[in-house]
């Protein structure tokens, strides 16, 4: 017995949302896998692809808020603070690499990284999440980056854009 159309669409979209959330916060998997979900929806492609892309963007934004919360905990944890005090190299490494990148490129760097198909996202999210102090802006960039990323990937999959090496 098949699920009613509205219930099956709801279940698939909730699954897309949860997958994108988990990819942002915990799983080192490509978000592009959600582009298979429209094939399961009984909707026209002109509706199903944009719908899945927006839902995945919302999931990524929600996951980014989890990353910011975890980053806040890491940033303010006793062992990390003590490690920084006892290891000057650690402080210098942190300042010159991750912090330097974030300060130099800010949200534009995050947007470019999150918009690049097949580029690992979870590590990028955590690199920014540990330093991030503006969670709403972080979530908005994650949402927009995911929409751009999945749109580019979809265009590549459909052959509307080609890449030559």
What does this structure look like?
The protein contains 7 helices and no strands. It has 165 residues and is mainly α. The chain has one domain. Helix 5 packs across helix 6.
The largest β sheet comes out as:
none
| Uncertain stretches of 5 or more adjacent residues | none
Radius of gyration: 18 Å
Q: In whole angstroms, how far apart are the ends?
A: 48 Å
Give the integer mean of the pLDDT values: 79
Structure summarized in a few sentences:
It is built from seven helices and no strands. The protein has helices at 5-25, 45-75, 78-86, 88-96, 98-115, 122-131, 135-158.
Key descriptive features of the protein:
single chain; 165 residues; mainly alpha; 7 helices
Which helices and strands occur, and which strands form pairs?
Layout: H1 5-25, H2 45-75, H3 78-86, H4 88-96, H5 98-115, H6 122-131, H7 135-158
Helix pairs in contact: 1-2, 2-6, 2-7, 3-4, 4-5, 5-6, 5-7
